[in-house]
Specification:
about 400 residues; Aspartate Aminotransferase, domain 2; 2 domains; three-stranded antiparallel sheet; 14 helices
């Protein structure tokens, strides 16, 4: 009788999915912020905006509390509201369509391409109606969408493009940074993202008037630079110019983000090395690996997604998830298709089978750990765990 093999990683060494790389620079910057006495929205948030705008090669940026807030404010800045329709891919996180619903507009789904898992331009074109006002392409996992096709469709129908760049800080398409291809770009600094502030987001915009309105809406609708009212420049009166939101980023969050952004390229290179190691180490197994980055593009390497199909792999996707957890490896699902969720079925009448490609991907996909924090031993453990689970 064979002795059961111990897991690749015991419980006290469980490999968490999406753990960020936090170094001494972040700790020092946060401590300095605490000692400064200014932990709300202030000078560090402004510095972070300037640094991000410089990285994206744009004139300005607006820091907000999350990518969801960034999407919501971008839609409002473009005047989208009740009676309008906004097209989004059927495979994305719920925040993409929740932001649309928060404006009173109706989200409309278009299916995705099987290999890229990004918005299918043909399905996008077929979803346009006389009520369509905007498109939200999502650069899923850090892979850029087919923006030439999407831009052509948007131009033909005079539609706003709001890029969901939650996974795509470093992404480029034909030499242009993600977020600068459409009218607005929205970014995430959530704890699992490529640049981390714990919670946080950023907006960049082609039109500076859009960015100006977003800044006002993000802080209660107060007149510009309202945070300066407590600065050493002396008290400044402010006015409420419209009914806004509490969507601002704090200096504590920006303190984490500034050193992270300074290391964005070295962290990207490490994630690329991990991604490539997975491609080599998992080749030949009965699973579908992600396709290689497209020509003249830059992949952000935010997620490494495999697909586990029961007929080919010999076990269901959820059995694979449980097996990886038992081996001490944290995994994720990015994502179930949006029509799988009960709220949207009830509120909007969506059905999974209406977007068959997204439905199939959502039921087969598994995200493996991918972080600059992973060392070579961690990567080897993940590969070994995948092999063990597939062997049964």
């Amino acid at each position: 009788m064979s002795v059961p093999q111990p897991p690749v990683r015991p419980k006290d060494r469980f490999l968490a999915f999406g753990a960020p790389l936090i170094q001494q620079e972040e700790i020092d910057e946060v401590v300095a912020t605490l000692r400064s006495g200014w932990i709300g929205t202030g000078p560090r948030a402004a510095r972070f905006e300037r640094a991000f705008a410089e990285y994206k090669r744009v004139p300005g940026a607006a820091a907000v509390g999350s990518c969801t807030a960034a999407l919501h404010l971008s839609l409002l800045a473009r005047g989208i509201g009740p009676g309008d329709e906004v097209i989004a891919p059927a495979l994305t996180f719920c925040s993409t369509v929740n932001a649309v619903l928060h404006t009173g507009a109706r989200p409309v789904l278009a299916d995705v391409e099987n290999r890229s898992q990004n918005l299918d331009p043909d399905r996008l074109a077929a979803a346009i109606t006389k009520r369509t006002r905007a498109i939200i392409p999502v650069h899923l996992a850090g892979r850029p969408c087919d923006m030439d096709a999407i831009l052509e469709i948007a131009g033909r129908h005079d539609l706003t493009i709001i890029e969901d760049c939650a996974h795509a800080i470093e992404t480029e398409y034909h030499g242009r940074p993600a977020g600068t291809l459409g009218d607005l770009g929205c970014f995430s600094f959530y704890v699992t993202k490529n640049v981390v502030t714990g919670e946080g987001g950023m907006v960049i915009a082609r039109r500076q008037e859009d960015l100006g309105r977003i800044r006002v809406l993000a802080l209660h609708g107060l007149s510009g630079d309202a945070w300066k009212r407590y600065s050493d420049e002396g008290f400044r009166h402010y006015q409420v110019v419209e009914c806004g939101y509490k969507y601002n980023m704090t200096d504590l969050q920006a303190a984490l983000g500034l050193p992270q952004l300074a290391r964005v390229e070295s962290n990207w290179r490490r994630r690329r090395a991990v991604w490539e190691a997975y491609q080599r180490g998992l080749a030949g197994l009965p699973i579908t690996l992600p396709e290689e980055p497209g020509p003249d593009t830059r992949h952000a390497y935010h997620l490494y997604q495999i697909r586990v199909e029961a007929k080919r792999s010999g076990l269901a996707r959820d059995e694979f998830l449980a097996g990886m957890t038992a081996q001490g490896i944290g995994v994720g699902v990015h994502y179930l298709s949006l029509p799988e969720h009960p709220h949207y079925q009830k509120a909007l009448g969506w059905k999974p089978e209406d977007h068959a490609v997204a439905m199939r991907i959502g039921r087969e996909t598994v995200s493996l750990p991918l972080s600059a924090k992973l060392d070579d031993a961690d990567v080897a453990d993940v590969i070994e765990a995948v092999r063990r689970v597939l062997r049964g």
